[in-house]
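ingest -> validate -> predict -> emit
validate: passed (alphabet ok, no gaps, 306 aa)
predict: started
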Amino acid sequence: MSAQPQVSVVLTTAEGNRDPIPSLRSAIAQTEPATEILVVGPTGEAADRVMAGEFGDRVLWLETASTHVAVQRNTALRHCRGELIALLDAHAIWNPVKLARCVATLKHAPQDDLVYTPAIFVDPDGTRHTPPSPELLPYGWILDELFEEPWIADATVVFRKTVWERQGGFDEALTVTSGQNFYLRAARAHRFAVIPEALTEIFRPAVAPSIVEHAAQIRETAEMLHRFFEDQGGDERLDSRRAYRALGLLCEEAARLSWAEHNIPLTLRATMGALHYRPTWWSRFFLYWVLWRTRKERIGMNLAAG
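emit:
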């Protein structure tokens, strides 16, 4: 890394219901100025203000019609000039020293390629949730820990651009887990550093996800982890016992949520996944119960039709 590395900030606007200007101002106000700040998303009022030069010539707007966060990040990263990439979202705000701390960490730790911090989550009513024990967050080779629990928030991460190049970018087929998948793929070959101090505030949406949306998120997570384990080299590097347990628990949750939606095919698929990875009495009982309830309902429907 050069003595004074160039830093590119990538600010995505995928959550179109939030004004990205407060996030942008927090990036501009950093004590370690970024070389460039790329704001990416569809045109609108914020785009007009950026393109009019209101925030200076370091801030550029990259237009894309897509509201998919992975597409927006890949679009911006193809234009980045920085050695280091700092991710930011329209629902997050940085502490003024966030970039300085992250850049210094990577500058003095050439063995590490990504750095992250804990975050403070803010509810719509202003309630702040601080991380309980940030000093216990893992660092170094953290693939097993990342697979078990996706605790890294995108807006806290800074990484060397070479990581993105080697991993082939963010997976644009994923809607809610592209960041988690990127860190997993990176953790196969790269070390992570951590700064045990919350330097980012993340604002939770005013409307919580519905049961259907939450179920879809859990199913995507389970499918993504399964694909990573089976097809992307996860089985070669992960502790199989820990990975099987994590996948089994996630499949169980997906099965419960799918049943609450009364989605029988997805319930059965998730339950079979739970049986494969973590064959417990619960998964066996749940499978038989779903099959029994389904058969009973079909018999009732046939009787009613007759």
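Residues 299-306 have pLDDT under 50 and may be disordered.
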